[in-house]
Every structure is written in structure tokens, then in C-alpha cells.
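Is this the right way to post C-alpha cells for a design question? Let me know if I should format differently. Anyway, here goes:
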């Protein structure tokens, strides 16, 4: 059990640590840590470099989470197919491959470990001196794989909050709160519910400066004019 969990943790962290926001900004001759909110998340990249760059970063950050959570499911599926009995026309078993790469009881723990470490890697990347984003996009990508219906509910909360307030940070916070609640009531795997709660709390903690600005009325918001011309992306 320890080996697959360790592999998931290392692979997840390295995937999450890939600094796509920094790389995309660098390709435009910008050090994203010196502009805007100084975050490599998709929202700050969008503010500094525009809609296209922000959407690219969001998609790449989400893909990191999806891959970190999804590869254990793919490996387990492959192992199950390899372990299936193959029978001839007479019904006799002619081949049996007993492949035990990931047993069913390990798939979710390994996937959860991978996603958790991907979010940590994104927020504390070893490639950028342990600086990073808030983990919203990376979390969303992983949760799309682990619980797509719950993720759609969280997305609906995000959209409703954003278009009601024009605050990306507030939308991300409310979405982080909605995720574990929806996961609990839709009876998702206990480990996934716990992960949603832990990541949600982590995302809210990383938004603590935004919360202060929201309370003080100084938080930046997308104007209706800019939001119409340039669709928002969640913080990542």
C-alpha cells in the first residue's frame, strides 16, 4: 500500500508544481510574480496578459489535477482488463493474467493522494521557489475526474456568485464551500468528501488576503463591460 501512495504523492506534486502560469507569462516576456496580484493563477494571468493567456493557464492547471487524480483509475482499469479470463468458443479458459497493479480498495486512496499533492505542488511549486497559485483550477480538474456531478454543482455556485457579485475571489470561496457539502449529500466516497473539505479549507485560507479586501471593500472586481467582452476564469 505504501508504494502506490508514495508514487501518487510524488507524481501528483511534480505535476502540480509545473508552473504553467509563470511559463505562459514568461513566453510573453513577463514575470508574473512582479505584476498584478503577483500570482501565477489564471485570473492574474488574464488580467495582465488577456483572456487567451488566462484561459490557456486555467486549462493547463485543470489538466494537472485531472491527470494526478485520473492516472490511478486508468491503471486500475488496465489491470482489471489484463486480469480478465479469456475463453474460447467451447467455454474453456485459455488464458488468465493475474495483474495486481492497483487493487480496487487502493484506487480511491491513491487518486485522492495524487490530487492533494498536486494542489500542494501548484501552491508551493519547487520550480518557483515554493510560490504558486491558490489551487482552484487544479482542484477542479481533479474533482471532474473523481466526482463530475458535484463539480458541476460547484461550478454553478461559482457562476452564480460571480455574475451576482463580479468578484472572482468570492466565487472561488463559495465554490470551495459548496464542493464538500454537495459531495456529502450526494454520498461520495468518504475519502473524496474529506479531500473536498481539506482542499476547500486550503483554498479559503489562501484567499485570506482577498477576504480582508472584500471586507474592506477594496477587492478588485470584473466590471460588467470587461466581463462581457472578456469572460472570467476562476482563480487557480
Amino acid at each position: 500500500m505504501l508504494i502506490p501512495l508514495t508514487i501518487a504523492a510524488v507524481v501528483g506534486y511534480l505535476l502540480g508544481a509545473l508552473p504553467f502560469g509563470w511559463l505562459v507569462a514568461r513566453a510573453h516576456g513577463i514575470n508574473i510574480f512582479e505584476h498584478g496580484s503577483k500570482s501565477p493563477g489564471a485570473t492574474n494571468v488574464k488580467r495582465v496578459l488577456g483572456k487567451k493567456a488566462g484561459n490557456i493557464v486555467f486549462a493547463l492547471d485543470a489538466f494537472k489535477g485531472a491527470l494526478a487524480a485520473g492516472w490511478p483509475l486508468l491503471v486500475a482499469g488496465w489491470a482489471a482488463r489484463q486480469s480478465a479470463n479469456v475463453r474460447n468458443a467451447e467455454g474453456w479458459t485459455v488464458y488468465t493474467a493475474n495483474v495486481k497493479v492497483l487493487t480496487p480498495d487502493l484506487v480511491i486512496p491513491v487518486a485522492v493522494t495524487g490530487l492533494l499533492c498536486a494542489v500542494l505542488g501548484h501552491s508551493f511549486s519547487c520550480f518557483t521557489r515554493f510560490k504558486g497559485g491558490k489551487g482552484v483550477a487544479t482542484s477542479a480538474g481533479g474533482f471532474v475526474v473523481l466526482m463530475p456531478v458535484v463539480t458541476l454543482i460547484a461550478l454553478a455556485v461559482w457562476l452564480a456568485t460571480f455574475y451576482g457579485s463580479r468578484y472572482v475571489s468570492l466565487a472561488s470561496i463559495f465554490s470551495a464551500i459548496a464542493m464538500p457539502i454537495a459531495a456529502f449529500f450526494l454520498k461520495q466516497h468518504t475519502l473524496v468528501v474529506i479531500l473536498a473539505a481539506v482542499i476547500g479549507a486550503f483554498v479559503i485560507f489562501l484567499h485570506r488576503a482577498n477576504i480582508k479586501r472584500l471586507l474592506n471593500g477594496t477587492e478588485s472586481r470584473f466590471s460588467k463591460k470587461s466581463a462581457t467582452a472578456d469572460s472570467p476564469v476562476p482563480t487557480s
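Format looks fine. Someone answered above. Worth noting: The beta strands are 85-87, 93-96. The radius of gyration is 20 Å.
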